[in-house]
Amino acid sequence: MQHFPAVRFLDRSTPPHVLTLIVIAGVSALSMNIFLPSLPGMAEHFGTEYRLMQLSVPVYLWVNAGLQIVVGPVSDRFGRRPVVLTGLFVFLLATLGCLLAPTVEIFLAFRMAQAVVVVGMVLSRAIVRDMVPADQAASMISYVTMGMVVVPMIGPAIGGLLDEAFGWQANFWILALFGLLAFWLCWSDLGETATARSSSFREQFRQYPELLLARRFWGYCLAATFGAGSFFAFLGGAPFVGSEVYGLEPAWLGLYFATPSVGYFLGNFLSGRYSVRHGINRMILIGAAIVVAGVAALMATLLAGLGSAEVFFGFMSLVGLGNGLVMPNATAGMLSVRPHLAGSASGLGGAMMIGGGAGLAALSGALLTPESGAMPLVVIQICTAALSLLAILYVIQRDRRLAMTAGRF
Asked: Which domains does the chain have, with CATH numbers?
């Protein structure tokens, strides 16, 4: 960690204000799914099948995951500021391309190009870790990841209202507006934080085994990946559950989608308040346990024949609460194992989360039928939550062994 001058808002000679990091992470997350309620209208506009139009979600996520592997190392080599600004500029061009696309194939091409906005998601976390130590990073990252997880939950609610009022194109105009705001904020406020850089990619790649062979890094990555998996499964399956199983209209479905954000806000608040005091491992453990308990309670309720839209989405607030504890702390953990490779660690960890999330979103969507109800989605969620819990238990056990070994010398 380097020593930086005090943060001054809109002064790019100092590190960025946390508001700037929240905005760039939020724009990156908002582009995932704000247009979900518009998919039927978009399919009609382009004269194509709904299934082809729906590819704009998993294809975007897979491209997003691939880019995360590249973005981290590039920012470690050339700095955070130029990579963020370049990514946001390309995102703006791609968003305009989506609006002007004459065919669904061209739309999907520009949609894939939009994925470059992942720079905001990856590097906002790396920038925090550049600035502050691990426990303090967990507190600060909790506010940044709020944008990364809460925004996709409320995005469909915004998108549904915009679609009803102005049509599907309004969602992409909003993305362009927020992208422009993020670009201006970064240009004015984002001072460089990656001051210790490798002289070449070859030198940087020589250091990768140090990161990839670190068991604690993989433990934190898996805790975050499986923790986020419950959300991405929700993202892929909840639209079907809400509309086909419980008969919600698009506007109501968008509003119900926001229920996990209530829990996530609370989880982020608790992370910001208690991570420094109690440590990141304990916070992750508590969060993963809450997700397991919440999904298990939902499963029991459904098996008892008491399922409803209110019950299903209400229990998702517990998933949000647990993830609000898991995500910022697990992210801080993975970035702190090898701080000099924070950008690479953020990119690799993010790629695992998004890539795995895309697979889980596709899986949950494929398994759900009107006859199955919400149960396949709930089974996926409880499995991923349990794996997240096992991952952090491994990290805790590993830390204890390392502490005992150090105590002998």
From this structure: 18-191+199-407 (1.20.1250.20)
